Amino acid sequence: MLKIPAILLEDWFMMTHDDFLKIAKQFHAYTRPFVDRAEDPYPFVLKQEHTARVCRAMEMLCASLGLDGPKTARACAAAMVHDMGRFPQFAVFYTYSDVRSKNHAALGCREIVRSNILSHLSVTDRQLILRAVALHNRPRLSGKLGSDLSLLACLLRDADKIDIFNVMKDHYLNPDSSHGFITYDLHDDGKIPATAAKALLETRQNDLSYVNTLNNMRVFQAGMVYDLNFPAAAAAILDLDVIPVLLGSIPPSDLITRLEQALLDHLKSLAASRV
Ligand SMILES: [Fe+2]
Fold first, then answer.
1. How many angstroms is it from 123 CA to the middle of ligand 1?
2. Residue 263 in domain
3. Rounded to the nearest whole angstrom, what is the distance from the C-alpha of residue 121 to the centroid of ligand 1?
4. How many Å lie between the centroid of ligand 1 and the Cα of residue 253?
5. What is the pTM of this model?
6. What is the DSSP letter of 35?
């Protein structure tokens, strides 16, 4: 029987850019009917566009770390499929709030498996991508992930956040009453979200349970900077200059000024650090 050296076998299963392009094509085939069937296609188009930008952010992060072609292709594939659950979520529940509907990461894993979008990949790549998608919206990552999964999950969470900040900045600077779904239709009570802001300053960790008003959500979104992993992600978010936009519409107070400064200091220090 012909014996194939293990190193060659590995090469056969290395993910390529063409594998990624196949996933991109299938992603568009999967999402197009949601856009075509919708009375208002905007929520679905927004997620298609978000996905494309998360893929570009992912490429940038991978380049900043000097990752090789197969690891970059795997990471970009994870970016392409990471929000597939958003499409059935909005089609069924008309919201992107997981609390008021279903966990979109779990829905995404279900759709990834059902659609066979990763079927041409090795078992290892399929499993890593599915697990990274399942982890992309968790409040925090466990320290016990293996090195490949840890890298992929951290990359996906950062690439996703870069574009979440981008979408939020655009939304807050160009408010549109028909786009309230972006902020889960939360009410602006005009109050300083003091409890959430104090907790964030003290713990440097976000707590979703405070998100019951628009200003609490602004604090939560700004607090996502504490969950970033890579200097290039921090640098991209600093370039966006989004923190003042997020916190700028909250009534002025010493507490919010201190929070803004702490978040900017954190971003600057992460951006200047080495991985
Ligand atoms: Fe997501």
1. 23
2. yes
3. 22
4. 32
5. 0.93
6. H
Indicate whether 181 belongs to any domain: no
20 and 152 fall within a common domain: yes
Q: How far apart are the first and last CA of the chain?
A: 46
Ligand 1 centroid – CA 105 distance (Å): 6
Rounded to whole angstroms, how far apart are CA atoms 13 and 10? 5
The total number of structural domains in the chain stands at 2
* Distance between Cα 110 and ligand 1 center (Å): 14
123-173: pLDDT as tens digits: 999 999 999 999 999 999 988 899 999 999 999 999 999 999 999 999 989
Backbone φ and ψ of 103, nearest 5°: -60, 115
The number of C-alpha atoms within 13 Å of 48 and in the hemisphere containing its C-beta is 18
Task: Clarify whether residues 138 and 233 are in a common domain.
Answer: no
State the distance from the centre of ligand 1 to the C-alpha of 227, rounded, in angstroms.
15
Provide the residue type at 177 as one letter. Answer: S
Ligand 1 geometric centre to CA of 204 (Å):
22
Domain shared by 99 and 59, yes or no: yes
Provide the residue range defining the domain that includes 237.
Answer: 186-272
CA of 51 to the centre of ligand 1 (A): 9
Separation of CA 10 and ligand 1 centre (Å): 31
Q: What is the CATH number of the domain that holds 126?
A: 1.10.3210.10
CA 141 – ligand 1 centroid, Å? 15
Query: What is the C-alpha to C-alpha distance for residues 49 and 103, in angstroms, rounded to an integer?
Result: 21
pLDDT in tens, 75-126: 999 999 999 999 999 999 999 999 999 999 999 999 999 999 999 999 999 9
